[in-house]
């Protein structure tokens, strides 16, 4: 047996080395790195990085995002340079400045007072977008907070269900019109009229989602171990409802802008000296056949705003769902 071991040969780097010629110098001590041994080879996961990657994957989303950024920049920057005002009638006696069709000098044409429609549209878009964003934020914040409490408290559930059953059976547009007439015209009065009862729908929607999430096994285990319900809602429930909240915002934002346009078309809500897309559409509707650009250009800008906001909101809601990151 010993002779066979001595005659054994070791193959190393393509060469044959007799077994009896092996020494300690032929071996290298390899050190062990505990951190490297515990390292996981799977790719590092980042939630918000995955959201951005999924959101920017579609070319349509990128196009709508660029379009929305251009509209926002024009709406909130251009009016500061134009100084547009509905009460400006300085060119009303200048017949050459009135009813000019879109051209290189007047991109969107001029109206009966000789004012640039380009300036009027972006000043009106700033008002409409501001109302939609502020009303949506107020509705979502109040709705999410009350809905989260509503979904875990039986006492609150009994009271809020009765309130919801009463308010939900009254048309929301009717409530907004009545409150607008009651409090008078004004920017903040209109926002109050829009958000006074609109949060109840968001709260009920969040209540249903929270009731579904609270029965998950890990939430039941956390409650059994004595974790406060407030911590369960903040840490275990609301982070998983991000996509649901974004979806609700994407639907509420165009809806509030449409409410403002409709109420301004009826002459309700905003003061007479405040420009908005709804007021422009109402003011120029008689010129639909004679000077159609006065009516259709504000309608076109309104359509671009609502469509782009809705598509961006829906794509962001899909991207914020962790199930789409696989």
Describe the overall structure.
- There is one protein chain.
- The protein has 326 residues and is mostly helical.
- The protein has a single domain, classed as MetI-like fold (Orthogonal Bundle), CATH 1.10.3720.
- Helix content is 65%, strand content 2%.
- The protein contains 13 helices and two strands.
- A two-stranded antiparallel sheet has the order 1-2.
- β1 (9-12) and β2 (15-18) form a beta hairpin.
- The longest helix is centred in the middle third of the chain and has 36 residues, at 117-152.
- The radius of gyration is 32 Å and the shape is flat.
How many DSSP-defined strands?
2
Question: What form results from the Cα inertia axes?
Answer: flat
Sheet/helix structural class: mainly alpha
Q: What is the CATH class?
A: Mainly Alpha
Count of structural domains? 1
Average pLDDT confidence is 79
Into which percentage range does the β-strand content fall? under 5%
Estimate the helix proportion, in percent. Answer: 55-70%
Low-confidence stretches: 1-14
Order of helices and strands: HEEHHHHHHHHHHHH
In CATH terms, the superfamily is: MetI-like
CATH fold name: MetI-like fold
Give the number of helices.
Answer: 13
Q: Main beta sheet, described? A: 2 strands, antiparallel
State the end-to-end distance. 59 Å
- Record the strand order, biggest sheet: 1-2
How does CATH name the architecture? Answer: Orthogonal Bundle
Radius of gyration: 32 Å
Organism: Liquorilactobacillus mali KCTC 3596 = DSM 20444
Pfam family, one: BPD_transp_1
Main location: membrane
Protein name: Peptide ABC transporter permease
